[in-house]
Amino acid sequence: MVILDGKKISNEIKEEIAAEVSQMKERGEKVPHLAAVLVGNDGASLTYVGSKVRSCKKIGFESTLIHLPEETTEDELLKKVHQLNTDDSIDGYIVQLPLPKHIDEQKVLMAVDPDKDVDGFHPVNFGKMALDMESFISATPFGIMELLRRYKVDTEGKHVVVIGRSHIVGRPISILMSQKGEAANCTVTLTHSRTKNMTELTLQADIIVSALGVPHFLKEDMVKDGVVIIDVGITRVPDESKERGYYIAGDVDFESVSKKASFITPVPGGVGPMTIAMLLKNTLLARERHRNIK
Description:
Blueprint: E1 2-3, H1 6-26, E2 33-39, H2 43-59, E3 62-68, H3 74-86, E4 92-95, H4 105-111, H5 123-130, H6 139-150, E5 159-163, H7 170-178, E6 187-191, H8 198-202, E7 207-210, E8 228-231, E9 235-238, E10 246-249, H9 254-257, E11 263-264, H10 271-293
Parallel strand pairs: 1-11, 2-3, 2-4, 5-6, 5-7, 7-8, 8-11
Antiparallel strand pairs: 9-10
């Protein structure tokens, strides 16, 4: 059994990007600039955005954090998005989700310039990805594909079962793994909370990507020997015995399932670190794209 070490691979990717940024500086070129818009004080969002800003600094990117108060109106946020769209110094930016309930997330995401949408959430980027055209791929599916590539996991002709149909992970990864190319060429079954024969399907799977958000959902009796497990789930489970009052759990019962798996991602330290690395990769791609346009 091989652990798919997302922390290790993400550090390798960051080092590769840092080397490219260093060469840009030597040539006197503008380095990539990533901006993040955060509305309110959601704890998880603050942690995640802080991690992105630190990663930018570490690899030589410029970064801007725009922290707006909870009571920011939808119109005010849309004005800020328009400013970022027209600011040539910003190569890519993200609007951190979730947004406060009084703001229409879809409306805001639609207002983001697809050429600066390094989160890959805009319908233009999703559509291009589905059509196998050059686009920004949502960072988590992008990270999963990169993990599979770098560990040379054999996917050719394999049956993949994806658990979860979100637009951010489940649906895009099901499309990417069914396409032609490295870490792809799979036959994909997309399952979700209404799927009736889940265990029957997971027992047939050569590869399982679980993005359901239900702790320890996938058990040993639901998988076959030699299965490849990609656990995207990350949930805070209350636990008074822990100093923090909780522990982090994935969708997969790691202890038992890992005994059957040929490859498996841990939680934490698997898909999570890859998400930030691929966001940085998308920002580098945005910088290159803008340089070519100019």
